[in-house]
Amino acid sequence: MGDTGQGTAAPRLRRDAARNRERILEAARLAFAQQGVDASLEHIARSAGVAIGTLYRHFPKRIDLLLAAFAEKFGAFMAAAESARAADDPWVGLSSYLETLCGMQAGDRGFNDFVSMRFPASAETESMHDQVCAAMEAILGRAQEAKVARTDLTIGDLVTVTWANSRIIEATSDVAPRAWRRQLMLTLESFRYRGDADLDEPPLTRQQLYDAMARLSAP
């Protein structure tokens, strides 16, 4: 019997599906970077040249698309966190970690949102954020043990740096795109160890921090 073409149809369909997936991811990365995690999925599908149904076949939920779009960047961020944790100078580790985080925020509004929020319905993002918190604790703990960072600092204080940085970037990105760096430098100076005196206002509890991050992602 002659070749009916059925033998090549499946591989061709898989190649087409893979190309569509990559086009969707390229469009999503650009849209999320410009508009944040709430970017229109319909716009992303149009930009990718596919139907919205095709997008949903590849990524049934928005969080699925977010995870795929930010997977590479999250990996790079965690690698930077590991380098900061291993730095010979604990203060350099802490300051370089925060500069890397704030710099990645400045270049990508969607990643800015992603690291600043909690998505309680997604076990995968919860695990990722737990990894971030563990890295923060290790980096901050080394700096505190070395008496180069305030002993009353918490990871909640580091997370609020990202919230403040987000607003600074939003206000200045078009007129002074490096303004966030000055604010970060001022913040880091306030983080330096100068004795054991605690502030009058207590830090956020773990639950308060979690609830605040989850609230940011609420529709």
Quick structural overview:
The protein is an all-alpha fold and 219 residues long. Helix content is 74%, strand content 0%.
Please describe what this structure looks like:
The protein is mostly helical and 219 residues long. The chain folds into two domains: 1-60, Homeodomain-like (Arc Repressor Mutant, subunit A, Orthogonal Bundle); 70-217. The chain has helices spanning 6-35, 41-48, 52-58, 62-85, 90-107, 109-116, 123-145, 155-172, 179-191, 206-217. The longest helix has 30 residues, at 6-35. The mean pLDDT is 89.
Key attributes of the depicted protein:
single chain; 219 residues; mainly alpha; 2 domains; 10 helices; elongated
In angstroms, what separates the terminal alpha carbons?
Answer: 58 Å
What is the helix fraction of residues, given as a range? over 70%
The domain count comes to 2
| Main sheet characteristics | none
The count of β-strands is 0
Q: Which residues form runs of ≥5 with pLDDT under 50?
A: none
Class of secondary structure makeup? mainly alpha
Would you list the SSEs in sequence order as H and E?
HHHHHHHHHH
Q: What is the arithmetic mean of pLDDT? A: 89
Total helical segments: 10
Q: Rg from C-alpha positions? A: 21 Å
Strand content: under 5%
Q: What characteristic shape results from the CA principal axes?
A: elongated
